[in-house]
Amino acid sequence: MKASALFRATFGVAPRAAASAPGRVNLIGEHTDYNGGPVLP
């Protein structure tokens, strides 16, 4: 289910705005990329 449809189903009104932002998901809890270590793409 899309987020906008879930919002409408939960609150009974359409969302007024939607936003997205680039980012990363850290699956193993390490912060090595900024120290020159390996990361998962």
Walkthrough of the structure:
The chain is mainly α and 41 residues long. The protein has one helix and no strands. The protein has one helix at 3-11. It starts with a helix and ends in a 30-residue tail after the last helix.
Please provide a brief summary of the model.
The protein is an all-alpha fold and 41 residues long. The protein has one helix spanning 3-11.
Topology overview:
Blueprint: H1 3-11
- Secondary structure category: mainly alpha
Largest sheet entry: none
Please give the number of β-strands. 0
Low-confidence stretches: none
Measure the end-to-end span. Answer: 26 Å
Name some characteristics of this structure.
mainly alpha; 41 residues; 0% strand; 22% helix
